[in-house]
Amino acid sequence: MQYLNAFWVGGLICAIAQILIDKTKLTPARILVLYVVIGAALGGIGIYDKIVDYAGAGATVPLIGFGNVLANGVKEAVDSEGLLGVITGGASAAAGGISAAVFFAFLIALIFNPKAK
Length: 117
Known about the structure:
Layout: H1 2-23, H2 28-44, H3 47-55, H4 57-60, H5 63-81, H6 85-111
Helix pairs in contact: 2-5, 5-6
């Protein structure tokens, strides 16, 4: 059942983004930023954690999950380090994912011939 929940929640998140692209004048970049902000807001008030408990990877893999990671990192860092955690918490919580994205992008660029559009 967990696979089904992950599939339909992740699919719903992606379908909403596709509807926003098709039916509004929002650019994909603005929709991505909107998703990160929504994830951070829902994570900051504790709602997104309940969605993650229900849907697992269906809620953490889409970009909205990145905003949640940032918000949770800031909350934990503020609890342990005080006001300095506002600046450092999000970056340290997301460092693994960011590092993996940079590494794999570099690896793919080495394998294939990237071209500017």
